[in-house]
Structure formats: structure tokens, C-alpha cells
């Protein structure tokens, strides 16, 4: 069972590499050189302190609304391979949100039972070619199944992020250098 102490941390540098790789993949898909689907989600659980900037592409789900949003969030993120939670410092709200998300995901999406193999050749292939249809249906169902996720907490939260990447417009949006000049104020 996952606990606050066993949650994995992700450094700002590691997260920046994931974001840049995702951006490159999206650009390649737009150019038509490869297929792309977003595999990364960043959830910012800051409340009133959600000012002064945010990680590009992140979703703000204030911690005081998280419990009500969890079932929806689990469904929205079911196809993401990596989910990163953070708050200002990632000491309380970020880790707590990640843990609650993991537990809600486990509750709503228990491990899938292995796909049963066809008992006969006819069932697999189908006497009238129906086997191909069944195969396509199974493939569609597989796409809908939740993927194995890695859930992380951003080490040092947005405070640490903005120190490293606040001025990098590829990675940070709405950054206000003046607000961060004297450090974290909350």
C-alpha cells in the first residue's frame, strides 16, 4: 500500500525533460512524421497561491476541491503514463493529493483480469470471418483500459520549479519574476 513516505519524487530537471520530449512529440505529430498522444499530466493543487506562474500544460485542481474532483480526474487521466502532482513546496498538499489520487484510482480501476484466450479455433477465427471483428473490438477495448501509471510528486514544488525554469517560456507560463523576487511568501 502506498504511503506519503513511499511516494516517488521527480526533480524539476527530470520533469522539464519529460515536458520537452512531449512537446517534441506533439510537434512531430503536427508535422505528420509520427502519431502522438499526450502521456504526461501535471496537476497543480495550489489554492490561493496559484499566482506568479505555472508549469506549461499543467492543470490547476485546487486542493480544497480535489476530493470532489477525484473521480473525474481519475477518468480524465486514465490514459496518461505519468502523472505529476505539486503544490507550492510539495510538502503537504502535493503529496497528499498524489496519495488520494492513487487510492481513488485503485478503488475505481482495479487491476484488470487477464484476457481469456479463445477456447477453439472457430471461436478465435470465426466461421464467417467474425474473428476479425472480435479482434478489432478487443483492440478498441484495450485502448480504453487504463494504462499502468507512474505517479510522482514534484520535488520542491513550484517554488523549486520557478527557481530553475521560471524564465523559460517553453516550460513556464504566466511567470511573474517580481512576485518571486523575495522568495515564497505564504
TrEMBL record:
Chain intervals with Basic and acidic residues compositional bias: 131-146
Q: Name one GO cellular component term.
A: cytoplasm
Q: Which PROSITE patterns match?
A: RHODANESE_3 (PS50206)
Instruction: List, alphabetically, the SMART domains matched.
Output: RHOD
Q: In the record, what terms sit under GO molecular function?
A: protein tyrosine phosphatase activity
Q: Which Gene3D superfamilies match?
A: Rhodanese-like domain
Task: Identify the stretch(es) annotated as Disordered.
Answer: 126-146
Q: Where is the Rhodanese domain?
A: 36-170
Descriptive protein name: Rhodanese domain-containing protein
Organism (species): Neurospora tetrasperma (strain FGSC 2508 / ATCC MYA-4615 / P0657)
Amino acid at each position: 500500500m502506498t504511503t506519503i513516505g513511499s511516494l516517488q519524487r521527480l526533480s524539476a530537471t527530470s520533469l522539464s525533460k519529460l515536458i520537452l520530449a512531449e512537446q517534441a512529440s506533439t510537434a512531430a505529430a503536427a508535422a505528420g512524421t509520427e502519431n502522438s498522444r499526450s502521456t504526461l499530466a501535471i496537476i497543480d493543487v495550489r489554492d490561493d497561491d496559484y499566482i506568479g506562474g505555472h508549469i506549461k500544460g499543467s492543470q490547476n485542481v485546487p486542493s480544497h476541491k480535489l476530493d470532489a474532483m477525484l473521480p473525474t480526474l481519475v477518468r480524465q487521466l486514465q490514459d496518461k503514463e505519468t502523472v505529476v502532482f505539486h503544490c507550492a513546496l510539495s510538502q503537504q498538499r502535493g503529496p497528499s493529493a498524489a496519495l488520494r489520487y492513487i487510492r481513488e484510482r485503485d478503488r475505481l480501476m482495479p487491476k484488470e483480469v487477464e484476457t481469456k484466450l479463445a477456447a477453439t479455433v472457430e471461436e478465435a477465427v470465426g466461421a464467417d470471418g467474425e474473428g476479425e471483428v472480435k479482434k478489432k473490438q478487443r483492440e478498441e477495448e484495450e485502448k480504453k483500459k487504463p494504462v499502468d501509471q507512474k505517479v510522482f510528486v514534484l520535488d520542491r514544488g513550484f517554488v523549486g520549479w520557478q527557481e530553475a525554469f521560471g524564465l523559460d517560456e517553453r516550460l513556464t507560463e504566466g511567470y511573474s519574476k517580481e512576485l518571486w523576487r523575495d522568495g515564497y511568501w505564504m
